[in-house]
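Section 3.1: Structural characterization of target chains.
Under the original work plan, the team committed to producing a structural model for every single-chain target entering the pipeline before any wet-lab resources were allocated. The record below documents one such target. The sequence was received from the expression subgroup and is listed exactly as submitted; it comprises 120 residues.
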Amino acid sequence: MTEENFDPRIFSGSPNLETLKLVDILLGDLKTLSIHALILRNLEISFSREVSYSCKVVIHTPRLTTFKYGGYASMVISTVSLVSLDQVCVDVHWNPYLPKQEDALCLTNMLKQFRQAKYL
C-alpha cells in the first residue's frame, strides 16, 4: 500500500461500520493510517513485523469501546475524546531499528492516548 493508491475515505464511506479488523498490515511506504468512523465500537490493528518503521495511526472514532493494537510502538492520535473506551489491548514489539530510549518514549506516548480506558 502506498500514499498514491490508498484512499483514507474508505472507512468513512461505511457509516454503519461497528467493527474493523486490520490484521497483519503491510503498508509499504504509507506513513499515516487514518480511520474516521463515527459509529465504530471495536477496532483491531496489527502490523506485519516486516515493517521497519512505525506508522502513525490517526483515529476519529468517538464511540470506540475496544481497541487492540499489535506491532511496533506507534504514534496513535485520537482526534476526539475516547470517553467510551473500556478495553485496550496492546501487543508491542520492540523496534530494533530505533534506539531503546526513543522506542520506550513512543510506547509511553501511545499509552497516554488511552488513559480513559477502564482496562489496559
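DSSP finds one helix and seven strands in the chain.
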